Amino acid sequence: MPVETWLIFLLGFMILGSIVALEIRDILSSIVAVGVVGLALSIAFLFLQAPDLAVVQFLFEIFALIILVCAFVRKEFHALEPARASRWIFGFTLIGLAAILALSLKVFRLLPAFGRPLMEVSRHYLEHAAAETGAANVVTAVILDYRAFDTLGEITVLLTAILGTLTVLRTRARSGKGGDR
Amino acid sequence: MRDVKPGLTVIVKTVNRLILWMIFLYGIYIILHGHLSPGGGFGGGVVLALGFLGVLLAYGRGFSLNWLRLGTLRDLEYSAPLLFLGFGLAGMAWGGAFLANFLSKGKLFALLSSGVILPLNIVIGLKVGLSLFLVVLALAEFDPSQGDDE
Predict the structure, then answer these.
(1) Does B73 touch chain A (CB under 8 A)?
(2) Which among A51, A56, A148 has CB closest to B120?
(3) Could you tell me the end-to-end alpha-carbon distance of chain A, in angstroms, rounded to an integer?
(4) Per-residue pLDDT reduced to its tens digit, A11-29
(5) How far is CA A81 from CA A26, A27, A67, A134, A142, in A?
(6) Over the stretch A145-176, which tens digit does the pLDDT of each residue have?
(7) Do residue A148 and residue B88 have CB atoms under 8 angstroms apart?
């Protein structure tokens, strides 16, 4: 079977898993469904011959599953009220998206045609990465040499997320139990 | 075994003690060989965080916090982006551009090759592993059912 057939099968599986995760009432089943989606994504990365991404996705999926189970499987979280967004919020979101699309039409016109300079940058990476950076793994060469600035941004995002989490949870823990670590 | 009350059973604790250093070794291997084989800082960092998480789940929160020195971990985690920035500025000083690869490239497929990529991988692995572990710790903080109250 060609790769595309497997990918379509996996994508259908993931869509099914997402719908189950959204619609099911029990939060533990919902977490398991989210984990199934992530693991299917990791297998899809393997089919697309991206072992780096597959490794990270697989490990992180296990980690996220443990975090979610630790954090949310408690008595008070078990039965979730189905969230009901107000009609106003929905309308505003729709108008905002339409405005963004209308404003960005000019930008779209400035872009080069889709796939026109075919694999120009990628080909340069594939041909010159080993000689220019000395790294045998081209993915790492791109992440940490050609686009190291992007990685710096990712690290900053991670730091901000951790700071926010610690701040919010620390105040809740302090007000809840009165104990300061 | 000294403190029976917090954490899981003695079987889990023993297996965890035996397997923990292998997990750390695997994570460090993935980080150090990031420029040679699939993996790198992000994947290896998650492996390290999973090792820490195993300690936390098996031994309970109080024991882990005594063993791990939380303040040191947090300082290391916060200083990782500064280290990354430092490498960037060093590239500016000696390589001519921000985050330029100013160290020697070395031989292809050698462990000590590819210049600045190897230390940057180590920094990222440290950062990812510690920050994920800190998130777990923060989420376990106000959990009444997990571990004992210090």
Answers:
(1) no
(2) A148
(3) 57
(4) 999 999 999 998 888 888 8
(5) 11, 11, 22, 55, 45
(6) 888 888 888 888 988 888 888 787 766 555 55
(7) yes
d(CA A163, CA A143): 24
Contact A63 B114 (CB under 8 A): no
**B78 vs A: CB within 8 A:** yes
One DSSP character per residue, B4-72 reads -SSSS-HHHHHHHHHHHHHHHHHHHHHHHTTTTSS--HHHHHHHHHHHHHHHHHHH-HHHHHHHHTHHH
B43: chain A residues, CB-CB within 8 Å: 52, 55-56, 59
pLDDT on residue A134:
79
Segment among A79-83, B72-76, B105-109 with least mean pLDDT: A79-83
CB contacts < 8 A, A to B, total 154
Q: Is residue B71 part of a domain?
A: yes
Looking at the complex, report in whole angstroms how far the Cα of residue B2 sits from the nearest Cα belonging to chain A.
23
- Residue B89: name the closest of A148, A138, A154 by CA: A148
B46–A56 C-beta distance less than 8 A: yes
Range of the structural domain that residue B119 is part of: 10-141
Whether residue B115 is contained in a domain is answered as yes
CB-nearest partner of B138 from A134, A155, A169 = A169
Q: Please give the C-alpha separations between residue A24 and each of A38, A85, B138, in angstroms, as whole numbers.
A: 17, 18, 27
- Does residue B3 form part of some domain? no
Considering the domain boundaries, does residue B148 fall inside one? no
Provide the CB-side half-sphere exposure for B126 (13 A, CA): 19
The answer to whether the CB atoms of A56 and B36 lie below 8 A apart is no
For chain B, the domain total comes to 1
Q: Which residue has the tokens 């992000």?
A: B42
